[in-house]
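[Meeting: bench + compute handoff]

Bench side (C.D.) handed over the final construct sequence. Compute side (W.E.) agreed to return the predicted structure before the next meeting so the bench team could plan truncations. Sequence as handed over:
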Amino acid sequence: MTHSEQRKAVALVSGGLDSTVSLAVAKSEGFDVYALTVSYGQRHSVEIASAKQVCDFFAVVDHHILDLDLRCFGGSALTDNLEVPKGLKPGESGIPITYVPARNTVFLSLALSWADALGARDIFLGVSSVDYSGYPDCRPEFIRSFENTANLGTRAVDDDHKFIIHTPVIALTKADTVKLGISLGVDFSLTWSCYDPTPTGHPCGRCDSCQLRAKGFEEAGFADPLSVK
């Protein structure tokens, strides 16, 4: 494997805060980043637009937006005709209805397929197991298990260079993630977190994701550019 191939990485980019900071980390570590965004039938397209802007901002090598309609399965307030909970403390009621069944398993499998095709062995995923909504596929044990699966079910099984799933913000609070992003030059005005935008296109301010974002910026001591637009 050549040096250039060793520096390729696939990053899953949703347009949200965590995935954007993870992308910034990949760039800061010298990777040539190939970004993957999945349009999975979520409630709105704002985050897809944000993902495009983020990838342009960081000048990724390539950015694929893959259509995969998970609405045919439903089972989540993000992919079904269910109300997005508002005003609840994140994680207080177990796994929330905004959890999309096996989403990160599906997304990581797609990123793995592209990485394998590229000859890349590094995948970046923006998940947190500290300030998060309680999704089971954001936990370190899941990431370790998927990494093991990746190295058993691909050509890496016969290759000395194994796949690594990088999760730069998994052990960070949202405040620490914001601080890390600021230090890496992230333009947070390009990002989007809200699950259920208002009719005027503004963040609702009350869903899990909005609350976690607001908490992060407040505790980090920075103004959220989306809240002052």
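W.E. noted at the follow-up: Helices lie at 3-6, 17-28, 46-57, 103-118, 140-152, 174-183, 208-220. C.D. will use this when planning the next construct.
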